[in-house]
Design goal:
68 residues, mainly alpha, 3 helices
Length: 68
């Protein structure tokens, strides 16, 4: 799973956000930083939903049908 995450990391957005920080460009820092942060949060939420939803759904269905 880890090798598949590396292409998803918003590296360019983080790079330009840090570049804006170093060059004292607050607008660039805010714009690129917010974009990179929202991309990272979306990636994390997608991974959590995809990994947890089927597990809880299948355990609920299994308990409902097999353990009456």
């Amino acid at each position: 799973m880890v090798p598949g995450l590396f292409p998803l990391v918003p590296g360019a957005g983080i790079y330009w956000a840090v570049y804006g920080l170093v060059s004292s460009d607050g607008a660039e820092l805010a714009n690129r930083g917010a974009g990179a942060l929202s991309d990272a949060v979306a990636i994390v939420l997608g991974i959590v939903i995809v990994s947890e939803l089927p597990q809880s759904l299948f355990s609920f269905i299994g308990k409902k049908h097999f353990f009456k």
